[in-house]
Write a structure and sequence with these properties.
With 159 residues, the chain is mostly helical. It has helices spanning 5-24, 42-59, 77-98, 117-141, and strands at 107-110, 113-116. It is 53% helix and 5% strand. The longest helix is centred in the C-terminal third of the chain and has 25 residues, at 117-141.
Length: 159
């Protein structure tokens, strides 16, 4: 759980840069790649990451300029990346412009439970990191290069 707005913003900016790199590694052709019939396609997973920024943020009273869950998935990686970058920046702006450290202890109803806003932001990050990890696997299976996230990937190491 976050207890400092500055700490969250530092982590959010670093993690959203990593997410943007992973999203940008997709190809338009790979958006339809599906590892299993019960799984999301790479595009559906990427779009879920994008729409979750607004969706989870609204539970904490944030107005995030991003697509809603029911917004149709764009057809190109470029559009998905653009939507993500705008939503991620909007999330940071919304928090930076109106929250202070004490705001993180305010409780909201989130998915049927009472969560402090610091927890909601932590869950947002965990959710994004979880799905970003899934997406790196789909990149590999689709034959695309996996970008470095927390260190070099097998594709970023030169033999």
């Amino acid at each position: 759980m976050f207890t400092s707005v500055a700490n969250f913003l530092e982590v959010w900016r670093r993690e959203s840069e990593s997410t943007a790199r992973v999203l940008g590694a997709l190809s338009d052709e790979a958006l339809s790649y599906r590892a299993h019939d019960r799984s999301r396609s790479a595009g559906e997973l990427a779009w879920h990451i994008v729409t979750a920024v607004r969706e989870i943020g609204k539970h904490a009273g944030l107005v995030v300029n991003g697509p809603a869950n029911d917004t149709p998935m764009p057809r190109t990686v470029r559009e998905i990346c653009s939507a993500y970058e705008k939503a991620a920046a909007s999330m940071a702006d919304a928090i930076e412009g109106s929250w202070f450290d004490g705001t993180l202890s305010v409780e909201d109803q989130v998915y049927g439970e009472s969560w402090p806003r610091g927890k909601t932001l932590f869950v947002l990050l965990c959710h994004e990191i979880h799905h970003r990890g899934q997406l790196t696997l789909l990149l590999r299976e689709a034959g695309l290069e996996v970008p470095a996230v927390y260190g070099p990937s097998g594709d970023s190491i030169q033999p």
